[in-house]
Every structure is written in C-alpha cells, then in structure tokens.
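Final report, closing paragraph on structural work. Over the funding period we assembled a curated collection of sequence-structure pairs, and we close with a single example.
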Amino acid sequence: MTEFYPALRVDIQENLLPLSALLHQRGMPHRVIEKGGHQVLEVLDQAHIEPVRECYGAWQRGELQIELRRRARTPAAGDIGSTLPLRAPVTLALIALSILGFLLVLLPMTRELVTLFAILPAHVAADPRVVGGVGGEYWRLVTPVFLHFGWLHIVFNCLWLWYFGQRVEAVIGAFNMFMLVVVIALVSNITQAQFTGSGIAGGMSGVVYGVLGFAWAAPLLQPAWRIQPAAAVMLFLVLWLVAGFLGLVEAAGFGQIGNAAHLSGLVCGLLLGAVFGLVSRLGGGGGNGDKEGDASL
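Its predicted structure, as stored:
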C-alpha cells in the first residue's frame, strides 16, 4: 500500500486547487484528503514536505499569484479540445447517443425502429408489469433515456446532462459514472412506465435529475468534491419538477412530462450521492478530482 506523508493541514473551505496544480507541474506527487474537518495535503516523498510548505507560504504571500492566474487565463490552444473526451467520456457518449435517439424518432425512415428501444414492445405497450413485459429484452429498461421527441427536449437535456455530468464524472471516474447512469436509468424508466402504464416514453431528464441529486448530496458528505451546482440552477430545476406535478408545464404547451421519472431519478441520485460521498470520506479519499483539480469546473 502506498504511503503518504502529511505536509499541510488547512481549513476545509480553502481552495487548494491552484497550489495542487503548481505542485504537479513541479513533479511533486500528492493528494488532498479531509480529516477532522480540515484539508490535509499529503506527499509521496518525505523530501517534498518542506518544498510544499515553502510553496504554500509563497502562495499565501501572493508571490505565486500572478503566475498561477496567467496559467489559468491562457491555456494552450489544444488543451480544451484534447482533454474533454478524457475528462468526461461517458457524459459525451450519453449526449451522442441521445442525439442518435432523437434522429431515430425524427427521421421517417427510422421511426418504426423506435419501438425496439421503448421500454415495452408495441404489443404489450399497456402492460403494467414492466420487467416481465420486456420478454427478456432487458436493454429496453435502459434505452428509453436516449429517445427524444422534440427539439427542446433534446437540446435542454443535453445541455443539463453536460452541465452536471462532466462535474460528477470528474470526481468519480468513467466506470462509476457509467454504473451511476445505468442505475438511475433503470429506476426512472421503470417508475415512469409503472406510473403511466405506457410503454412509449423517453428522454434523458430522469438521468439529469439523478445526476443533479448526486451532485448536490455527495459534497455534503465529501467536502473535497466541489461539484455542487449553483443554488439558482438547483432552485430552477426543483421548481420545474413541482410545476410538472401541478400540470403547469403541460398547460404551458411543453407536452407530456415524465414527472415520475424526474422525481424517482432525483431521489435515486440523492441516495447514491450520499453513499458515494460517505464511502469516499470514510476511505480518506477525494476522488479523481484531487489529482487534477477537475472539481473546479
């Protein structure tokens, strides 16, 4: 097991991401964890303890401030385009598949294929026994999230998915992000079908609400994950959820809304966020975001 040595202990609210970036540039492997309500920066090499403290002192005195700000403002031309797929491959794949699902619905020559990806086959579209009704075609329990039935539907779902998804994936990694989405998709799709009795429904919004719930709950238990959305964003989506249940969204002409998928996705995401955050905190880790500072997105 790799041994780390404590070099700094600072307030939990202090942003160490600029310092962390500088230490990586100078070849000092380290991690930042939470212990006893503080952030602890630990290094792999004991010889780096004093240099880290010197860097921190110089940073606090403002001697490194200009250099770090310039780096933040002037990234290399290829940095963003070359790293996005590496930072959030699952999120980008979900967006791409959602666009394909929208085209499947939109184009006349492929419209008949939609029933292959709906939660229930056409001949059992009203069967309330969702899991049994798929007849062994278990992909149907997940694939409805990729089906989108209008321009506003696909555009807003993709925008929200990117806003929340890349933040979460940055700290939990691609595999955990994939599993998170699968679980939320299963819960939201099955709940929506049970609630409405219809086999033709779709959209990524249940997953979006789930990832929103995760991004809100996880940092409450793992403060090192700075991925909580802005309060205004959360308020808007919660009010949208309430408006959906009150029938205001449909009355405004936005079409049928998957209220059951939204609520069940949100609850599922909240629970999973609490579990992930607690496990990370008890394990003394900070996720992928500790090394690269991805949680600053």
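Residues 66-83, 289-297 have pLDDT under 50 and may be disordered. The chain has two domains: 5-74, 87-296. We thank the funder for supporting this effort.
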